[in-house]
Design goal:
Number of strands: 4
Largest sheet: 4 strands, antiparallel
Number of helices: 10
Structural class: alpha+beta
Distance between the termini: 36 Å
Strand order of the largest sheet: 1-2-3-4
Oligomer: single chain
Strand content: 5-15%
C-alpha cells in the first residue's frame, strides 16, 4: 500500500466537480477520475483501520471495501433525483458497514467533512437496551460523554432535528436523572474536519485520536446489546 497518510488533492477536486455536475453523462466521462478518487479514499480508510486496530483489535480483520458505501444514491422515494452522492463515507464496524451496532465513521465531503461515530438510529429493541443501560449506569455513561477530552472533541451528543423525543420514553418517569439522554434516538459524536486537514499529513493521526476518544462510548453502547 502506498504511504499517503492523507488524501490527495485530486480526490477533493473530483468531489467538488461532481457536486457541480451531478449527472450520468458527466460521471461516465469522468469515470477514471472517480475510480482514482475512490481508490485514494479506500487506501486512506485501510490505513485508518490498520492504525487504529492496535487500540481496537475487533476491527483488525476489516478492509476498506467492507466499510465503504456506494456512490449511487437511492432515488426511488426521494424528490432529489440527482444520481450520485457528493461524498465518500466509511462506517468501520467489526460486523460490517450494515451493522446497527456502534462503530466509527469517516465522511469525506468538501466543506462538510466529519469523523466520529457511535450508534445511529438503532431499531426499537436495541434502543430499549441502550436506554436501560444508561438508566442503570448513568454515572458511568456521564463520565464518558462529559469527560474533558470527549467534550473538547465532540461537544454534546449529536441531536439533529428528529433525533430527540419530546418526552421521556414510555416506562421512564419524567424526573429520571437520565431523562435528557433517554430521549435520544441516536448516540453519536461528530467532529468536523476542515478542508485544510484533508490533504495534511496529520489527518491519519487526527482521525485516530477522534476514534480513540469515541471508543469508550462505543464500548458502553455495544455492551448494552450483549
Amino acid at each position: 500500500m502506498k504511504k499517503l497518510l492523507m488524501l490527495q488533492p485530486s480526490t477533493i477536486k473530483f468531489l467538488k466537480a461532481l457536486k457541480l455536475n451531478n449527472n450520468k453523462p458527466w460521471f461516465d466521462e469522468n469515470r477514471k477520475a472517480y475510480e482514482a478518487a475512490r481508490q485514494d479514499f479506500a487506501d486512506f480508510i485501510d490505513q485508518v483501520i490498520q492504525s487504529f486496530a492496535v487500540k481496537d483489535p475487533s476491527i483488525a480483520h476489516l478492509k476498506a471495501k467492507d466499510c465503504m458505501f456506494r456512490i449511487n444514491r437511492d432515488i426511488r422515494f426521494s424528490k432529489d433525483k440527482t444520481p450520485y452522492k457528493t461524498n465518500f463515507g466509511a462506517f468501520i464496524n467489526s460486523e460490517g458497514k450494515k451493522s446497527m451496532t456502534a462503530g466509527y465513521y469517516f465522511h469525506l465531503e468538501p466543506g462538510a467533512s466529519f469523523t466520529g461515530g457511535g450508534m445511529w438510529q438503532p431499531p426499537a429493541d436495541m434502543l430499549a437496551k441502550v436506554r436501560q443501560e444508561i438508566d442503570y449506569n448513568l454515572p458511568e455513561f456521564e463520565a464518558i460523554i462529559l469527560a474533558k477530552k470527549f467534550k473538547a472533541t465532540y461537544g454534546p451528543l449529536a441531536s439533529e432535528d428528529g433525533q430527540l423525543l419530546k418526552r421521556v420514553p414510555k416506562g421512564y418517569e419524567p424526573d429520571n436523572p437520565a431523562a435528557a439522554y433517554l430521549k435520544h434516538k441516536s448516540f453519536v459524536g461528530i467532529m468536523a474536519v476542515p478542508d485544510a486537514d484533508l490533504t495534511s499529513k496529520k489527518l491519519l493521526t487526527k482521525v485516530g485520536a477522534a476514534f480513540e476518544t469515541l471508543q469508550p462510548l462505543n464500548n458502553f453502547l455495544n455492551r448494552a446489546l450483549a
